[in-house]
Amino acid sequence: MEPEQAEHLSQLHSRITSWFTRNARPLPWREPDCSPWGVLVSEVMLQQTPVVRVLPVWQEWMQRWPEPAALAAEPSGEAVRAWGRLGYPRRALRLHAAATVIVTEHGGLVPDTHAALLALPGVGDYTAAAVAAFALGQRETVVDTNIRRVHARLVTGNALPSQSLTAAEMRLAVSLLPDDDAGSVAWNASVMELGALVCTARNPRCEDCPVLADCAWVRAGRPEPHYVPKGQAWHGTDRQVRGAMMAVLREAEGPVLRELLLAGPVDLAAGQETVTTPLAALHALSAPQEQLERALNGLVRDGLAELSGDGLRLPA
DNA sequence: TACACGTGGGA
DNA sequence: TTCCCAAGTGT
Predict the structure, then answer these.
(1) Tell me, what's the pLDDT at A245?
(2) In what residue span(s) does the HhH-GPD domain sit (predicted)?
């Protein structure tokens, strides 16, 4: 690298990490006394899920299951129930499975290498890197949606990163990473936070950006994205039905009769149900019988629920 | 590679 | 009101 480039990179590092020290949110999993297990749980919960929704659930989990062994000792259904409404409940199942692997194969301690972390259920490339960096202080190339967006704007000059992670993006992230462990950890956390608080997907707060003067996207006149992000369908999907069924199972004490879950819309005029209960909400979807059965079978197939007699319940 | 997979709050 | 999207993973 040319001396000039090295100097420029060093300035980006100090500007962004300095901004972080002044503006970072005080999150409990960033505290020095937070265990690797606490960091792992936070990272899985934060997958596709905003910080504000994770906070209370994470606190509950740490209180109830301060170590992997405590979680592994319980039925997976308890993890799913305690997951609440965070969404993507299979993450709870995988976290429970990860705790089991940690106990059986790692002596109850969260593994301390990227490769071993990556082998855990529910831990992909991002989460393995994040835990190695943030919990273990290791030099890792952490690439999440925030970091990708900051890189896309600051360096590449695009409004948004490509739709899928490219080799070029990875090379760029590697080239920007500070050489030392501590510096790289601070950089990863800082760029991620910058993306979350300032360099946001919609309405970025460029006035508050510590590297506004260096931003290739701003310099280019803030051009529009190269593509139109395609939104996820929701209304009428299997996911909507599965979600409604899971809500019923979470609040139920015991098994819920299949006929109740598979029933068509009830006669609301009869006054037996209001849309305030999960079961009423499920019925209110008026999903076709075929879709209800497909959703139920999917939950069982995925291990989120199990048949018990003539009913369905969270895994015991 | 593309798609399935939950949820709720802000614009 | 509708749409967007938030610290991705597994198949």
Answers:
(1) 98
(2) 45-197
Q: Indicate whether A18 and A153 sit together in one domain.
A: yes
Question: Which residue, among A91, A8, A106, has the nearest Cα to A44 in the 3D structure?
Answer: A91
- Coil, helix or strand for A46? coil
Other CB atoms within 10 Å distance of the CB of residue A284: 15
Tokens linked to A76: 């997976």
Strand partners, A307: A312
Q: Which residue is the nearest neighbor of B4, CA to C1'?
A: A239
Nucleotide nearest to A48 in CA–C1' terms: C6
Q: Which nucleotides of B are covered by protein (CB under 7 A)?
A: 1-2, 4-9, 11
Assign residue A234 a region (left: φ > 0; alpha: ψ between -120 and 50; beta: otherwise).
alpha
CA of A2 to C1' of C10 (A): 42
- Distance from CA(A49) to C1'(C2), angstroms, rounded: 21
Covered bases, chain C (protein CB within 7 Å): 3-10
Domain range enclosing A104: 35-134
Question: How does A198-229 read in b/e, with b if 16+ C-beta sit within 10 Å?
Answer: bbeeeebeeeebbbeebbebbeeeeeeeeeee
- Indicate whether A206 and A250 sit together in one domain: no
pLDDT confidence band for A274 (50 / 70 / 90)? low
Say which CATH number the domain at A285 has: 1.10.10
Residue A271 reports pLDDT greater than 50: no
Rounded distance in angstroms from the CA atom of residue A33 to the C1' atom of nucleotide B4: 37
Q: Which residue is nearest to nucleotide C10 (CA to C1')?
A: A122
Active site residues of A: 43
- Distance from CA(A235) to C1'(C1), angstroms, rounded: 14
Q: How many domains does chain A have?
A: 3
- Please report, rounded to a whole number, the percentage of residues in chain A having pLDDT higher than 70: 96
Answer with the one of A134, A149, A183 that is the final residue of a domain: A134
Tokens representing A180 are 């030392």
